[in-house]
């Protein structure tokens, strides 16, 4: 199996300035780079989930596409756990220790960031 080596991207310093909380710091320094690095895999997983759920986005108007994706991320607990697992699987031991202190909040942030990325890439075609 040919496994592609990935490196986390670095974010511009402007994004990291003025961070107020530990959760925001973790989000901007750890979550966003991991989600950006895993973007292709996350989108492929989303497309597979849409196929399994028999949701045909290409046949829906944009507002219904947004509603379908938002519903998938809010109602499908298994899918949400898989997305979270794809992200936390990239943590270092130190990052995992921080994650354990804010699990619920970080999981919420992971799902929100991935949902927004999916909306941008799949619905709005940014």
Give a short synopsis of this structure.
It is built from seven helices and no strands. It has 126 residues and is an all-alpha fold. α3 (39-52) crosses α7 (103-123), α4 (62-75) packs antiparallel against α7 and α5 packs across α7.
Overall 3D shape: globular
Mean pLDDT: 87
In total, how many domains does the architecture comprise? Answer: 1
DSSP helical segment count: 7
Count of DSSP E strands? 0
Structural class, by secondary structure, is mainly alpha
Please give the share of residues in helix: over 70%
Largest sheet: none
β-sheet strand percentage: under 5%
What is the H/E string?
A: HHHHHHH
What features would you highlight for this structure?
single chain, 126 residues, mainly alpha, 71% helix, globular, Glyoxalase
Write the layout of secondary structure elements.
Blueprint: H1 13-16, H2 22-37, H3 39-52, H4 62-75, H5 77-88, H6 93-101, H7 103-123
Helix pairs in contact: 2-7, 3-7, 4-7, 5-7
Organism: Brumimicrobium glaciale
Protein name: Glyoxalase
Structure description:
The protein has 126 residues and is an all-alpha fold. Helices cover 71% and strands 0% of the residues. The protein has one domain. Helix 2 (22-37) crosses helix 7.
């Amino acid at each position: 199996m040919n496994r592609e080596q990935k490196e986390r991207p670095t974010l511009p310093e402007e994004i990291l300035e003025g961070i107020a909380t530990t959760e925001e710091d973790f989000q901007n320094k750890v979550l966003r780079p991991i989600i950006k690095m895993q973007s292709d895999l996350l989108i492929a997983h989303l497309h597979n989930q849409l196929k399994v759920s028999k949701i045909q986005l290409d046949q829906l108007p944009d507002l219904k596409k947004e509603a379908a994706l938002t519903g998938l991320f809010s109602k499908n607990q298994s899918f949400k756990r898989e997305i979270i697992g794809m992200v936390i699987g990239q943590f270092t031991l130190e990052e995992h220790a921080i994650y354990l202190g804010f699990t619920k909040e970080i999981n919420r942030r992971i799902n929100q960031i991935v949902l927004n990325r999916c909306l941008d890439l799949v619905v709005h075609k940014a």
